[in-house]
């Protein structure tokens, strides 16, 4: 591995736990350094021991670490970027909690019932109920910690509709809710002096399939190898929507790291076939690659925006004559996908979204961000239509956990946030993912804190751990030196096409099988990789992404093939109906080196939530405010 830089504060091997100051003033990261050659190969790497390792510095990871710190347990939070710069910051619309600020009939059981209805009853009832029940407290807590939620005129936390809800339940901070929330959590983490490391990428968990013992990765700035030794590892590393050609995430986030790491470590994955496509993403062919897939807020439709195909037909009349453009995300996304697939789209591969029939001043007042963004691209949305197409937005599937504690079935390995499956079932209700991060994050932190024992404070690093880690470091070095002909970026782009074409909004058996074959061909091409710039380069990061992405992509294709029905976000053109016999989750595991997929029945909700379901609250697709 690379030689550590001269300013690294190091001690001789055996001098444990010299404190090192993190880049965040006042916060110390206690790490054990080990600078002696650690093997006959002369590999040098840093060893870090911590009672709890939290992989992921978004809202979920931060909330877990805060809970641990408040119960006196030290953790180390790591992320692939600077602290405060997680995917969470992109969440705009809001976070759900049945506060009843405006609609006092609302309560947590109705929130749970709405979530189950939108999830087509594939959700884990425990996950849904714990989230809905705890959210009012979590919002008040965020407020107390400083999140500047919008207010009603009489000073209560304001709430709005967000997609399909029975009542106004979404709390928000303008159109920057995720960013404001993460700022609050990071500030709180600073106050509690929670240790952190930035720009660290985990590439493997130390696991024998039964028990986790830490993780291995590298410092993305120095290229130095890192062995994290910990008896408790919390995966909070996000989802995998960025695997698709068009997606609303950043290219270098949401690549499926968490799911691949978990599967390889012996954990189970669940329902990977459910991917939420937002109906209106920007079209790269029209506005430039950097804008491809970025969200055009649903508020444009909420404010009366109309969808037209190339022939000028308001096509939603054919798909949803009552709800029209305001129908559920999956319905509108499917309608647009069909128009494009059947040749009625624009030359750039989209459809038109038009709000120009509304008064220009009203549009400027209600949709300022959209007006400004398109103006910067030379388009006046008060005068002309924009071009949109569906974009992969959120992954409902993920790691299979027990929501009461975050346990994965591998001792010491927990997971939380967009990493896991369960809260959202077959489709996600807008505003529920931020809710899940903090509601379940607190519970996981609480549980991990309660099982920490005296032996966990300074876990030993055994020869076996070193052997596993060194094998990984050698593999990483050899990847960084790859001198073939094809770049990781090219292969990731091709992977995105495979998923878009074969596991997109409309799927069928022939397409999914073709996708698997194309994936095999892609895998063969990885033998000819070319990595530019070594261990600290973006090219190398993408090469690592590629290996995890292939695992997750294959699992998605296989589960989508297995589920021979249509439900929520999973639409099979060869099985267009929902089949009650398929009210089951698909559990993926690797047993004796073989991937297996099996069905598991879904539990029933509690009597209180059943009552709310039976009361039949209207799940309507309201105009956004
Ligand atoms: C455009 C957009 C708008 C959205 N709007 C809303 C909304 O209005 N309301 C709502 O509820 N939800 C919304 N969502 C979804 C929501 O933002 C996410 O589901 C949520 O923020 C996920 O939080 P998280 O903590 O689980 O993961 P993330 O915020 O994705 O954090 C993952 C962390 O893991 C780290 N990481 C990943 N891989 C590794 C690795 N290998 N090694 C080390 N670290 C790693 C990352 O660096 C990061 O720190 C939106 C999403 C998008 C894309």
Structure commentary:
The chain is built from 17 helices and 23 strands. By secondary structure, it is an alpha+beta fold. Among the domains are: 278-392, Succinate dehydrogenase/fumarate reductase flavoprotein, catalytic domain (Flavocytochrome C3, Chain A, domain 1), CATH 3.90.700.10; 469-601, Methane Monooxygenase Hydroxylase, Chain G, domain 1, CATH 1.20.58.100. A 5-stranded parallel sheet has the order 9-5-4-13-20, covered by helices on one side. A 4-stranded mixed sheet has the order 3-12-11-10. A 4-stranded antiparallel sheet has the order 19-14-21-22, covered by helices on one side. A hairpin with a 6-residue loop joins strand 1 (18-21) and strand 2. The longest helix has 25 residues, at 538-562. The structure holds flavin-adenine dinucleotide. Flavin-adenine dinucleotide (FAD) binds at residues 55-61, 78-81, 86-88, 90-95, 177-178, 200-202, 217, 236-238, 248-249, 253, 257, 295, 394, 417-419, 430-434, 437. Flavin-adenine dinucleotide (FAD) is lined by residues 55-61, 78-81, 86-88, 90-95, 177-178, 200-202, 217, 236-238, 248-249, 253, 257, 295, 394, 417-419, 430-434, 437.
Rounded mean pLDDT is 91
By CATH's scheme, which homologous superfamily of one domain applies?
A: Fumarate reductase/succinate dehydrogenase flavoprotein-like, C-terminal domain
Largest pleated sheet: 5 strands, parallel
**Helical element count?**
17
Can you list the ligands bound to this structure? flavin-adenine dinucleotide
Keywords:
binds flavin-adenine dinucleotide; Methane Monooxygenase Hydroxylase, Chain G, domain 1; 625 residues; 34% helix; alpha+beta; 23 strands; Flavocytochrome C3, Chain A, domain 1
């Amino acid at each position: 591995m690379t030689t550590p830089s001269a300013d690294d504060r190091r001690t001789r091997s055996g001098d444990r736990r010299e404190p090192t100051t993190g880049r965040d003033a006042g916060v110390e990261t206690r790490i054990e350094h080990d600078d002696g050659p650690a093997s006959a190969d002369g590999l040098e790497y840093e060893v870090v021991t911590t009672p709890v390792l939290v992989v992921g510095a978004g809202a979920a990871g931060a909330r877990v670490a805060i809970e641990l710190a408040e119960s006196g347990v030290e953790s180390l939070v790591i992320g692939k970027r600077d602290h405060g710069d997680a995917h969470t910051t992109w969440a705009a619309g809001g976070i759900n909690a049945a506060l009843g600020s405006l609609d006092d009939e609302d309560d947590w059981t109705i929130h749970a019932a709405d979530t189950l209805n939108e999830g087509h009853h594939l959700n884990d009832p425990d996950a849904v109920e714990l989230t809905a029940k705890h959210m009012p407290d979590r919002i008040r807590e965020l407020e107390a910690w400083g999140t500047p939620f919008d207010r009603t005129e009489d000073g209560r936390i304001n709430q709005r509709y967000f997609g399909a809800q029975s009542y106004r339940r979404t709390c928000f901070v303008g159109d920057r809710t995720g960013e404001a929330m993460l700022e609050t959590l990071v500030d709180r983490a600073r106050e509690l002096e929670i240790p952190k490391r930035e720009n660290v990428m985990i590439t493997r968990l130390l696991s024998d399939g039964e028990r986790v013992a830490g993780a291995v990765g590298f410092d993305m700035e120095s290229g130095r190898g890192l062995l994290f030794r910990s008896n408790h590892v919390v995966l909070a590393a996000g989802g995998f929507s960025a695997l698709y050609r068009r997606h609303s995430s950043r290219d270098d986030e949401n690549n499926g790291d968490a799911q691949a790491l978990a599967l390889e470590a012996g954990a189970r994955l669940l329902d990977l076939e459910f991917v939420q496509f937002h109906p209106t993403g920007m079209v790269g062919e029209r506005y430039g690659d950097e804008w491809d897939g970025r969200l055009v807020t649903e508020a444009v439709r909420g404010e009366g925006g109309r969808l037209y195909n190339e022939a000028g037909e308001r096509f939603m009349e054919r798909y949803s004559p009552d709800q029209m453009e305001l129908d559920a995300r999956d319905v509108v996304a499917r309608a647009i996908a069909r128009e494009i697939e059947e040749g009625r789209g624009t030359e750039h591969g989209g459809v038109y979204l038009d709000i120009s029939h509304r008064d220009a001043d009203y549009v400027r007042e209600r949709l300022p961000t959209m007006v400004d963004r398109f103006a910067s691209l030379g388009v006046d949305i008060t005068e002309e239509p924009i071009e949109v197409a569906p974009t992969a937005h959120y992954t409902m599937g993920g790691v299979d956990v027990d929501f009461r504690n975050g346990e994965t079935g591998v001792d010491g390995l927990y997971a939380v946030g967009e990493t896991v499956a369960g809260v959202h079932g077959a489709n996600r209700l807008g505003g529920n993912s931020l809710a899940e991060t903090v509601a379940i994050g607190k519970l996981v932190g609480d549980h991990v804190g309660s099982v920490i024992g005296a032996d966990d404070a300074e876990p030993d690093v055994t020869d076996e751990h070193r052997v596993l880690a060194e094998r990984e470091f050698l593999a990483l070095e050899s990847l960084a030196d790859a001198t073939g002909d094809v770049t990781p970026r090219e292969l990731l782009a091709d992977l995105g096409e495979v998923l878009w074409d074969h596991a997109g909004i409309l799927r069928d058996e022939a397409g999914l099988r073709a996708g698997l074959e194309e994936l095999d061909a892609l895998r063969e091409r990885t033998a000819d990789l070319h990595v530019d710039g070594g261990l600290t380069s973006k090219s190398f990061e993408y090469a690592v992404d590629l290996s995890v992405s292939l695992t997750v992509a294959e699992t998605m294709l296989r589960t989508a093939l297995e589920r021979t029905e249509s439900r929520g976000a999973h639409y099979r053109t060869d099985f267009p109906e929902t089949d009650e016999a398929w009210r089951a989750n698909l559990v993926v595991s690797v047993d004796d080196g073989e991937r297996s997929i099996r069905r598991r029945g879904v539990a029933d909700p509690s009597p209180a939530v059943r009552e709310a379901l039976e009361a039949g609250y209207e799940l309507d697709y309201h105009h956004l405010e």
